[in-house]
Write a structure and sequence with these properties.
Layout lengths: L8 E7 L3 E9 L5 E10 L3 E2 L2 E2 L2 H19 L5 E6 L5 E10 L7 H11 L8 E13 L2 E4 L9 E12 H12 L4 E7 H9 L2 H6 L1 E6 L4 E7 L2 E8 L3 H12 L3 H11 L12 E4 L8 E4 H26 L9 E4 L8 H9 L3 E3 L5 E2 L2 H4 L5 H12 L7 H4 L3 H15 L1
Parallel strand pairs: 1-6, 3-19, 6-11, 12-17, 17-18
Antiparallel strand pairs: 1-2, 2-3, 4-5, 7-10, 8-9, 8-10, 12-13, 13-14, 15-16
Amino acid sequence: MSRRNDKNLLVGLDIGTSKVAALIGELKDDDQIEIIGIGAHPSRGLKRGVVVDIESTVQSIQRAVEEAELMAGCEIHSVHAGIAGSHVRSFNSDGVAKVNEGEVTQADVDQVIDSARAVAIPADQKTLHILPQEFIIDEQGGVREPIGMCGVRLEAKVHIVTGAASAAQNLTRCIGRCGLDVDDLVLSQLSSSYSVLGEDEKELGVCLVDIGAGTTDMAVFTNGAIRHTSVIPIAGDQVTNDIAVALRTPTQYAEQIKVEHACALAQLAADSEAIEVPSIGDRPPRRLSRQMLAEVAEPRYEELLTLLKNELRRSGLEEVVAGGVVLTGGGAKMEGLVELAESVFDMPVRLGVPQHVVGMSEVVDNPAYATGVGLLMYARQHRFARAPEMAEGPGLQGMWSRMRGWFQGTF
């Protein structure tokens, strides 16, 4: 197998409930990412984003990685991996520090971030991200890059994301058993935001919704920074289960029917359109109208969108997301979902597909790969900031190197 320049390779590993996707990107001289390899394999061993069977998960990761390596013609040694699940928690915090020399230095920024992260979190949780929102120098707010500015008192507002330590360790262990190092574990909706959102949307205010198979992840941005994240434990698998029960068909056929024929808005599905539905056991298949299928899917998606709207309202940010809602993820591709979401949220909604990369059109034009492409873009901005605390706990040296990367990437 031919070898490329390892330092120019970026690898994103999206370990989801329904599929594992490995994407290999090559960093070009103009800092653009070209996707040169992709591998996808059905995910066996995860439930709602959490590993429940290590052996099955390892096999799924191994096959996806091997497929990507074969396509790219290279070997990979480390990955940026996405992490999601109902165990993820987030909250906003702030800290205060004195500016020692009258001019803000990196040491002052490190100190104020350390002050902001000095909050009690449960023993079974670990910090995944500390994402700066803004800095305040002597009551002058809205500062994005404080280094070099004059002042006496420095404040920082940050968004802290934590996850179950056991979930992160199990994910890291599965990847390690495939012979790969984990450069970083990245929150899935944060990864997706890199690939599907524009800077103008983040400035104006936007709500990103990543609909997967096991969970639906939300992230809200305003003034260029992330303000709120949450996880809803309803997603594509629940729609599949509803179809299996309502149409009395095995789950694997229900998933296929959902992908190929389902519509999230019954009024868009013609009653004259018929689909063939396999039956359980030795019974012959039946023909049912597509509108009947839509009548099964619509209530579940409406329930999910209503929960998301309530979560957005609870965050207190509903009135400031002038950019509307962006739907992405594999579960967002269904016909009629954008129209249904517009009626529920009562604001503009669009489908988010990966942007800012070149290469394979089947990746660039598919929202199912939003997290994978976003991991490549995250890796590009943080490629010099490794995170040794992923395996051993929050080491200070690794944390500060990540801080420098966040200031460059978040703002």
